[in-house]
Design a protein that fits this description.
This protein is mostly helical. It is built from four helices and no strands.
């Protein structure tokens, strides 16, 4: 057995272990994404197809570039070992980190939205405060003018009633 062959086989095994770790990371991304956004059934089906397509591409990429696409038993073993290593050593820390990053991004987005909206609130306040002040000051004048403008209608109405009352008395 050639020493080059042993090194090459070790390289292939380590590459597939790395591929398994990468697959585990992609699965955690997928899991956190689904937990945060809670997609509906159609979106879930699309995400499942996308997830399996990405996993397939990663697997083929690792197999093609590590051993020219030759499929051997230890390739499967390497992927399984990689996923297990990732799951037991890194998965919890990665998931907590991803959730923290998503929370920070949500808070940052919320803060930026409030920062963008703030000038509009100030503008509305600058418009509404004088409006409410003017409305409060002009309210009595408004109601007096309304009563004065209705005066001819009220006089005509009173005159009509008095004529009807006078006709009924006769």
């Amino acid at each position: 057995m050639n020493m080059y062959s042993v090194y090459h086989e070790t390289y292939i095994l380590l590459a597939t272990i790395y591929g398994g770790i990468l697959i585990g990371f992609i699965y955690d991304l997928y899991k956190v994404f689904r937990g945060v956004f809670k997609p509906k059934k159609l979106a879930t089906n699309i995400q499942d197809v996308l997830f399996w397509s990405i996993i397939t591409i990663v697997s083929f990429y690792v197999l093609i570039f590590s051993n020219k696409g030759d499929l051997r038993f230890y390739n499967f073993l390497g992927f399984i070992i990689g996923v297990l290593v990732y799951y037991y050593l890194l998965s919890d820390k990665i998931i907590k980190s991803l959730i923290l990053i998503i929370r920070l991004l949500k808070q940052f987005t919320k803060d930026m939205g409030q920062l963008i909206i703030y000038p509009f609130h100030v503008g509305i306040c600058l418009i509404s405060v004088p409006y409410s002040y003017c409305k409060k000051k002009t309210k009595p004048v408004y109601y007096k003018s309304k009563r004065i403008l209705k005066l001819p209608y009220r006089v005509a109405s009173d005159y009509k009633r008095s004529i009807i009352h006078y006709i009924k008395k006769k």
